[in-house]
Amino acid sequence: MSNSKNIEDFAEIFKALSNANRLTIFLRLASCCRPGTVSLFDEENSAYVGELGEELGVVKSTVSHHIKELRRVGLIRTERRGQKIACWVDPDILAALKEFLSF
Amino acid sequence: MSNSKNIEDFAEIFKALSNANRLTIFLRLASCCRPGTVSLFDEENSAYVGELGEELGVVKSTVSHHIKELRRVGLIRTERRGQKIACWVDPDILAALKEFLSF
DNA sequence: TTTACTATTCGACATATATCGAATTATATG
DNA sequence: CATATAATTCGATATATGTCGAATAGTAAA
């Protein structure tokens, strides 16, 4: 099935989490978008690219690059909503990750 | 307490698992040395540096480098037993890792 | 259609990393 | 002590990565 992952897939996932800024972004996204739920980046729950960058002290292009990487390995999913980007943590991959570490 | 970890610590841990060869080494070690139990690298359960290298197709020095990295971030612990190296997965850090991904 | 705001892409660069082979160190045994 | 075996360290190198700033693209609203 298309969901099965091998060693290299997991290595890529870990790599996506191996940078402190990227890991912070991931946790921030996870905190505002519970796995399985799609949260908009609205006023109360703002976490769009620009703001994430300000918090971290990196420019927008870098944040965009990191988000792209998180999405590439499947950790998060994103969708444009107007000018901003909605995102959520993929619940399946989180489960797969925990399963992977269960030995 | 000395066990508490911050974002950067976890990023380092993920980085240690982000290389396919290193991840393979870690899983191989985990499979022969259950967390919390210290297993020697004896004949039946051989996983010392040289053999790990042969399996992966990398030279000893590279394996040694990877093991050093896994140890540095605390994922595994090692101890010399004669000419060979005993190792085991640190159960605490595994638990911390799973806890970290529980949100 | 302008203008404003947001996100992405692109090119550049400095730094980090994976890997190898040679040299060295550690341990055991003849 | 000399030899053999195992692991580490060291120096070199090619590749990957994180970051920035400028340019571009997408969306909304005046």
What does this structure look like?
2 copies of one chain form a homodimer. With 103 residues, chain A is mainly α. In chain A, strand 1 and strand 2 (84-89) form a beta hairpin. The first copy, chain A, is globular and about 40 Å long. The first copy, chain A, contains 5 helices and 2 strands, in the order H-H-H-H-E-E-H. A two-stranded antiparallel ribbon of chain A has the order 1-2. Chain A has helices at residues 7-16, 20-32, 49-56, 60-72, 91-100, and strands at residues 76-81, 84-89.
Topology summary:
Two copies of one chain form a homodimer.
Chain A: H1 7-16, H2 20-32, H3 49-56, H4 60-72, E1 76-81, E2 84-89, H5 91-100
Antiparallel strand pairs in A: 1-2
Helix pairs in contact in A: 2-4, 3-4
Chain A binds a DNA duplex (30 and 30 nucleotides) through residues 19, 21-22, 48-50, 58-68, 80, 82-85.
Taken from the alpha-carbon principal axes, the silhouette of chain A is globular
Major protein interface? A-B, 23 and 22 residues
Low-confidence runs of at least 5 consecutive residues of chain A: 35-46
Radius of gyration of chain A: 14 Å
Straight-line N-to-C gap of chain A:
23 Å
H-E order of chain A: HHHHEEH
Going by helix content, strand content and strand pairing, the class of chain A is mainly alpha
**Major β-sheet of chain A, in short?**
2 strands, antiparallel
Q: Helix tally of chain A?
A: 5
- Quaternary organisation: homodimer
Strand content of chain A: 5-15%
Strand order of the biggest β-sheet of chain A: 1-2
- Tally the beta strands of chain A: 2
Average pLDDT figure of chain A: 82
Task: Please give the share of residues in helix of chain A.
Answer: 40-55%
